[in-house]
Specification:
heterodimer; A: about 350 residues; alpha/beta; six-stranded mixed beta sheet; 13 helices; elongated; disordered C terminus; B: about 400 residues; mainly alpha; 4 strands
Chain lengths: ~350, ~400
Amino acid sequence: MSENRKMIETLELSKKFGDFTAVDKVNFHVEEGEIFGLLGPNGAGKSTIIRMLTTLTTPTGGTARVGGFDILKEPEKVREVVGIVSEKMIMYDRLTPRENLRLFGKLYNVPKPELEKRIDELIETVKMTKWANVQIGKFSTGMKQRINVIRALISMPRVVYMDEPTLGLDPASTAEIREFIKKLKEEQGLTIILTTHIMNEADMLCDHIGLIDKGKIAAIGTTSELKSKITEKGRTVVELDVLNAPPDAYERLKKVEGVVSASQMENCVKVIVSHENAFQDVVDAAGKSGLKLRNASMTLPSLEDVFLHFTGRAMVDEVKDKVPTGGGGGHGPWRSTAKRGR
Amino acid sequence: MHVKRALSHSLWIAHKDLLEFSRNRVMLVMLFVFPLFMMMMTGYIFPSSSSLKEMPVAVVNLDSLNGTAGNDSLTFITTLNSVNARTGFFSFQTVGTEDEARTKITRGDMKGAVVIAANFSENLMTGKQGYVTVLYDQSNPTISSQLMAVLDGVINQMGTQRAVMGINMTTGFDISRSVSMVTPYKVTNKGTVSGNPNYFSFLAPGMMMMVVMFSVMQGLPRAISHEKEAGTFDGILAAPTSRFSIIMGKTIAQSVRGVIQGSVVLILALLLFGVNVTGPLWLVVLLLLLGIFSFIGLGIAITSLATDEETAGTFMMVLQFPMMFLSGVFFPIEQMPWYMQGISRALPLTYAVQAMRKVVVLGAGPQDILLEIGVLLVFGIVLLVLAIPLFKRAMAR
């Protein structure tokens, strides 16, 4: 790939808060017009990386270039080419969508005649024309998120950061937003950095994925590249559905010959084995150690398994993801599981 | 181009803040209710001479001359009544004995008693002094001091009259000569402006300054910490907008709010509480703006030091309360002990209130408040110089 196609490039990017290293000498690049996923558990450093790339926080070491501008030397220029879709929605409830977009358009110095036209178009693309002059406070979360997304586009950015863009949305809105993100990439050639907890969302949308753990990049590549890292040496994933699994069930399987790693989320135990023949050994060992199996199967590796493979730790979010809890509370159902898992 | 852009950004941010504010009904109502409430509360809590009306006071006449009350004691009571009729402070009721009067005071039925001694008329007729005892309710110092003052006046006046008559009768001098012998000094009280200012005239200028300056000191940190918590501040910070435009926009919005609030106090004071502005109105507005200016730095400093809404609130409490009570808004600072006055003199609000009071009550022009204007300017500039680096540091986190 040629130099000028790199939209974002980090160079030993680091951030310390006192003694705590949130981001540790991170190096990666994002090509123009791709969707790049940053995946990792809460507290891994995803948000801090994005805050540095949007100039909201200054790195304590290293630097990065965004759209050809250095985040330390030319922060103003970086801000001009960057848009943010934050998890905490950036808009004012007492203002209408039009007023919100106009305010930010002005702050991004969009020329007046163009601004009004662009506002109309953006509102049209998310089918909110009817609601353009209604105060946002009256909207549902799904409607708000559409405005939150187009707000980031008012300045015609070249890069957009999307932090958990589907968090807390109902399935219909989630699908809509994902579709919209895809369209932005395909029709406008926008470069997008996406952080998400949801593995299949990353699988669906991202061209490249960076796995982040404890402030470091654990692995980087396309989804299939990452998955093939598991399968290339003949490794495979064994998934056990255990009846009333004790919390240390996975520990009992770690010592079995041929097992590379093991992890557990409630009743689901996942084991990566070095070759298919180890499958029977794992099942036998489970039986011997007193685990009652309801089901055992060999599966294709998921991104979750990839994360486990590279970090030795479960990302914990995915299992819960398949069995969505009712939610409740202001936060999405994934957060609480993430905390419990750690 | 750079300056124009920065200014345009700050105006848009101010516009946004004011738009939000104007759509917040609770806040709009509070804009009127808060000053009204404050004026009513503070204005009516403190007693003024005009608020004392018909306080029940017992009159015990023990004087007896040949079995009936003497002429002199009866004249005394008549004069007491006629003097009281001018002000209506008291309502006199005749009570039989001193003990009965004491009981009534203890029970709270009476606020005081005037006891004329048994040999009052006899003493006066034989060239001795006539004794009068005033009993008062010690549980209510303000009322009793009023009572004492008024009774003193009455008794003085009667004594003077009697002396004048005595001289007139014994020497044959005419009345005016007799008067000048008894009271050689005549004192007249006169304010420097016409009219009769009430407590509200004292209160309104102070309230106006306080409301305006606090609205900047409070509003700025509130507005910014609220946006930080809501997450919208990231949106503004991530835009190609200078930090200067942000703080400037917020300050403009809060200043406009402050001036509106100050005007509400002024209008209420003029319409409902009988206050007159004797000085030039433009000077009143100028002082409001100057007050805002002197507090902007403080507002920015609190914003930078307090990371969330709660901390900002705590900061405010700590700063606001002493300022409220030590700046002479509700009481004249001269009545405080010297060390408290020292603290008072270090607070900018003291000077702002002092200047505003001079303009509103005393009709002062700009040349009369140069010291106050100077202090406010210096205070504002020093705080801004200190606060801006703090703000820059806080934003760079």
